[in-house]
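wait is this the right file?? whatever heres the structure
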């Protein structure tokens, strides 16, 4: 079964409060077996504009990645992400 991935692109707009999101989302992602492969760090957009922060999280399956995103616990955390950043999440099936 192919793995599932969250690919997240973020511009933090409220750096004082954004850690509240990270503190709330991390336990939820861990509960669903999410493993961080990218969480911030240096990046370059050689072919166009990109957001300032990128995150890649691996799950055991695409279904598990979707389950995590749609969980009540993550949706509560997502409210904070949306309040403290401009961001988008892509949930993709791996190969």
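ok assuming it is, sequence goes like this
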């Amino acid at each position: 079964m192919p793995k599932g991935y969250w690919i997240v692109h973020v511009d933090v707009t409220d750096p004082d409060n954004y850690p509240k999101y990270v503190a709330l989302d991390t336990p939820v992602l861990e509960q669903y077996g999410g493993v961080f492969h990218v969480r911030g760090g240096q990046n370059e957009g050689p072919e166009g504009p990109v957001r300032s922060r990128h995150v890649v999280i691996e799950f055991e399956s695409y279904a598990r990645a979707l389950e995590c995103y749609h969980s009540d616990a993550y949706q509560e955390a997502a409210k904070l992400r949306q309040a403290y950043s401009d961001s988008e999440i892509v949930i993709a099936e791996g190969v």
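The chain has a mean pLDDT of 97. so i think its the right one actually
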